[in-house]
Amino acid sequence: MVVKVHGSPYASAPRRVLACLIEKDIEFEIVPVDLFKGEHKNPEFLNLQPFGVVPVVQDGDYTLYESRAIIRYYAEKYKSQGNDLLGKTVEERGLVEQWLEVEGQNYHPPIYNLVAQLVFFPKMGIPVDQKIIEESEEKLGKVLDVYEERLSKSKYLAGDFFSLADLTHLPFTHYLVTDVGKEFMIRDRKHVSAWWDDIANRPSWKKVLQL
Ligand SMILES: N[C@@H](CCC(=O)N[C@@H](CS(=O)(=O)O)C(=O)NCC(=O)O)C(=O)O
């Protein structure tokens, strides 16, 4: 059964799912949802995702939303297919889950604010708030300092293996080093910089960027 991914391949949370499906060699089709036309607020879409955001996946009669839940589901369901993304032991899995939560709870809020203020809002004609930009950059810097310390001892966030914990960082960090124009936040941190070069050059991510 081909997995249907409702969303835009240019949107970050759908890209998180697409990168995981490619890593796991899972066949998918994208069902485009045009955010600029507000298609994610149509009743038909809201029936799939009541919060009106992308992505949603439909896998036969199974429907799932929240990108981080979706990648956990497919990494587990297809554990023995494609690249392992969950670690080999319960201890490794614990660290994968820890850094998935760190990304969602500590990394995402400030980086999302920077992307919203510096990429989304200008496109939507919404005025930017310099104070939010400055506060978010400071918060993200402190989070990245923790990452720098971790990555000085470990090639990847959960250990010596690439996992969902690293993959989940790809979409918004890609924005940070491109459209947001704050690549220095990565490059000024030696181990974070090496980690980013490693994960951003994975074939799966390059394929996502070509969609
Ligand atoms: N927690 C959700 C967030 C999804 C989300 O915010 N999606 C954005 C697109 S993107 O930020 O991921 O690029 C969206 O649909 N935004 C539309 C809107 O907020 O109206 C997830 O991870 O699936």
TrEMBL record:
<comment type="similarity">
    <text>Belongs to the GST superfamily. Phi family.</text>
</comment>
<dbReference type="GO" id="GO:0004364">
    <property type="term" value="F:glutathione transferase activity"/>
</dbReference>
<feature type="domain" description="GST C-terminal">
    <location>
        <begin position="89"/>
        <end position="211"/>
    </location>
</feature>
<dbReference type="GO" id="GO:0043295">
    <property type="term" value="F:glutathione binding"/>
</dbReference>
<feature type="domain" description="GST N-terminal">
    <location>
        <begin position="1"/>
        <end position="82"/>
    </location>
</feature>
<dbReference type="Pfam" id="PF00043">
    <property type="entry name" value="GST_C"/>
</dbReference>
<dbReference type="InterPro" id="IPR036249">
    <property type="entry name" value="Thioredoxin-like_sf"/>
</dbReference>
<dbReference type="InterPro" id="IPR034347">
    <property type="entry name" value="GST_Phi_C"/>
</dbReference>
<dbReference type="InterPro" id="IPR004045">
    <property type="entry name" value="Glutathione_S-Trfase_N"/>
</dbReference>
<dbReference type="Pfam" id="PF02798">
    <property type="entry name" value="GST_N"/>
</dbReference>
<dbReference type="InterPro" id="IPR010987">
    <property type="entry name" value="Glutathione-S-Trfase_C-like"/>
</dbReference>
<protein>
    <recommendedName>
        <fullName>glutathione transferase</fullName>
        <ecNumber>2.5.1.18</ecNumber>
    </recommendedName>
</protein>
<dbReference type="InterPro" id="IPR004046">
    <property type="entry name" value="GST_C"/>
</dbReference>
<dbReference type="InterPro" id="IPR036282">
    <property type="entry name" value="Glutathione-S-Trfase_C_sf"/>
</dbReference>
<dbReference type="InterPro" id="IPR040079">
    <property type="entry name" value="Glutathione_S-Trfase"/>
</dbReference>
<keyword id="KW-0808">Transferase</keyword>
<dbReference type="GO" id="GO:0009636">
    <property type="term" value="P:response to toxic substance"/>
</dbReference>
<dbReference type="GO" id="GO:0006749">
    <property type="term" value="P:glutathione metabolic process"/>
</dbReference>
<dbReference type="GO" id="GO:0005737">
    <property type="term" value="C:cytoplasm"/>
</dbReference>
